[in-house]
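Sample entry (582 residues):
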Amino acid sequence: MKKTISILLSICMIFGLFAGTSFCTETAQAASAITSQDFLKANGKNLCNNYGNGSVVQLKGTNAGGYLIQEFWMTITNSTSHVTDEQDIYNKLTERFGTSGKDYLVGLYQDNYWTTADFDNCAAMGMNCIRLPFWYQNIRKSDGSLDFTRLDWFVAQAGQRGMYVVIDFHGAPGSQNGSDHSGIDGGNDKLGASQFFFGNNAYNNQQIYYDMWYKIAQHFAGNPTVAGYDLLNEPYCTYRYNSGYSDSYLRNMLWNIYNNAYNVIRSADPDHVIIMEATWDPVDLPDPSQYGWTNIMYEYHNYNYGDYDNAAGQQISNMQTKVNAIKSANYNVPSYMGEFCYFNNLNAWDEGLALLTDAGINWTSWTYKVISDYGNWGLYNQTNLQANIETDSWDTLCNKYSRVGESWANTGLINVMKKYFTKAAVAGGATSGTGSGSAASASISNGEYYLKVANSSNTEYVVCAENAGADPLVANRSSYGGAWESVTVVNNSDGTISLKSGANDKYVCAVIDENNQLLARSASIGTWEKFYLVQAGDGKFGLKALANDKYVCADFNNGGTLRAISDSVAGSWEAFTFHKVS
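Predicted structure, serialized as tokens:
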């Protein structure tokens, strides 16, 4: 058998010479490679580069679906009576051709499904992120060690072209949902096939999962191309609401697993964003403070199959409902629409992408490539070569898997999506509470500072609490002089800051019932003494009053008096620099 496989492998290598051909390839555009300055961390409701201290980055891209885990509706492999998922592919190929034959054919498919041309296509469209779904057996060997060869290649190629990668644990040991996209399809008993959660093997499967996340985090720690670790794809999935288990039971079981994975990852990697998926709504995720989670992002998926052509406008109304729920939950974390599709109607794609982008939500469509039968599910389409794992000969499988990279651009969908891939980032709003808006939340350490702000002529003035704090704060001093110009920054537990004036040891209050002026008059911190600190670029910050959701402005038309009256950081009057008092 070994000799026979060796001959067959040689024949298959000839077919492999023709692999990866694309009928239409996007012209790659020059993009700056990801560097350490691009490392993403969560900052309030936004992702920001420079380890969370830089500019807002809104992830906008697609999924590499069908690459490491085949779903037969969207890939060239046919579902047959004994082959319905990735596990069946592995089993049947091993049965027919031995382990080495299975390894070669699976590798041939993956080598040709996604090539450097596909990275070029994605970069040319202007996307900045690709979500990479993987099944645990894609990287875990029989001895428990992990083979990072394919993931390393994918991350390196994306990073060279200026694109981040979300590492997505799409198929857990034992299956977290009993669906084909987890690598194991339970057919009519998807709950019974979910042995990651249920059954005698659940504990051992979860231990393998935690061990894998530790090794993945250890391996990719410090890698700026990795946008984050997506803990588990669509847990429970189709039986989420008809399992017979209560909502609280399923949620608590999942949240405890998330918490364990979070702690395991943090022991190996303190910096990368950890992504936690809801199935399907914000109510299915906890307030992060319940577990003390930091530097995380919450993920949602959204599909509406009932109005495929958007004839009744339900594609948009359905997504609007999800966006409204995210806003209503008001979790102080970035939000991510990790999978979605607007199906046939390109106008729905246009409107729906605008909805997500303008809401400051990160997003990756499902998906990059599908067989042409499913059109707008993919940015690129393929001929359905109808590979049959059970009956196709070795030569036929080699031929079909060598050609799996053949694809052509879905130009209508690409032209719509490119507008949003290349649109400037929209931030996700203020950190928490009633505040909203489009500026990126920021942070500053506790301590004593003085504030400077510039007038329309770009002349800077230091903010002062005149008359020992008895008069409103005003930007009128040419330099820092002492206590009247100093404030102590106090970080509050709800993500806001308060300012205590050195002039009288009182907290600065946005006096909403007196022209919204800022006055150092309060002995304690309440709503009127709280402000959101938001990025304004070039090291400057805006101050948004919690009391009225307005930005503080140095009103130079009225002597530079500070008032909470602006709807945005419209110019220099709302942009303050904080200078540490030595």
